[in-house]
Design a protein that fits this description.
It is a single chain. α5 (82-89) crosses α6, α6 runs parallel beside α15 and α11 runs parallel beside α12 (278-289). The protein has 342 residues and is an alpha/beta fold. The chain is 39% helix and 15% strand. The strands form 4 sheets. The chain has a 6-stranded parallel beta sheet with strand order 7-6-5-11-12-13, with helices on both faces. The protein has a 3-stranded antiparallel beta sheet with strand order 9-8-10. The chain is built from 15 helices and 13 strands. The protein binds adenosine-5'-diphosphate and magnesium ion. The site of adenosine-5'-diphosphate has 21 residues, from β10 and α13.
Length: 342
Amino acid sequence: MATLEHLRKEGARVIVASHLGRPGGERVEGLSLRPVAEVLGVPLAPDCIGPDTEAVVEGLRPGEAILLENLRFHPGETANDAGFAGSLARLADCYVNDAFGTAHRAHASTVGLAERCNDRAAGLLLEREVAALSRLRDSPEHPYVCILGGAKVSDKLAVLEALTRRADVIAIGGAMAYTFLLARGEPVGRSLVESDRVEAARRLLDGPAEVLLPLDHVVAPSPEQANDAKIVDRIPDGLMGLDIGPRTIDRFEVPISSAANLFWNGPLGLFEQAPFDRGTRAIGEALCASPGYSVIGGGDSLAAIRAAGLADRIDHLSTGGGASLEFIQGRDLPGLRVLEAP
Ligand code: ADP
Ligand code: MG
């Protein structure tokens, strides 16, 4: 938004391009960007490429903006197809990328189009993301404490492996903690586990970082049976772990309160449903209270921190889930590399 306003104020004719959902390369009316055009207060082009779209773009005056229709209505977007990228490039002279959340994908709008524009730049949001995440990637201050949660170990294995070499302490909660507890030989009842990741979890536990696992749990027979929720140290047969317990919160708070750098990705419990949101809220509050520089990434993690009313007190909220994880583990992001190319 700030980048768009800046460009318009400076008299640019701005063509905004984005994607929504996974329409699979064809027009899906429910995934039109019309509501986005309404929020931005700009007209919506009939499509993102083609003669009709070129005609409306041609009619733009300096300071005016238009939003292209969903890029993913064409299969060439995710395929980074040369013809599709070329059609997009016909519309514009300069390229600005402000979509950090897509920078880890080599798509037409993030790479192919950029390569075809001589003038390329980072938008203001993307620049802020890179500055904040570079701090953790390039020269983390120690103690560097990471809190990882969320649904699946498999989603986060690569980042966990990288962070065991970079961070001092990794506190693990959420559903993925149960695969780690299983690796340590503890009972997990009916909690979500990925049996094919137990070996990987065992390796991570033996890595150089100190890994903290939950000491107690909020359990219930199922997520729907919240009235039967109780706190246990060992998960009984037939019950599911749905949040970290109070002793775990106290234990995780210790390194958080003395951390210099903090990175958090993934809720620590089934936060969408009370009372299983308590662990996530408490850890959010601990992050806010810590003097350390704090960064949170991940769609659900941001939703949780906003629901807890704590968003203003975090140093940086990353808009990129997968992109922020890849960035802090030191991977090359194709959408960023192309901006740096001469
Ligand atoms: P992010 O979007 O922040 O990267 P993830 O998508 O990895 O986070 O994980 C978020 C999901 O994990 C949420 O839907 C949350 O309910 C779920 N989750 C966390 N802990 C548990 C748990 N103990 N049992 C079941 N689901 C959980
Ligand atoms: Mg998510």
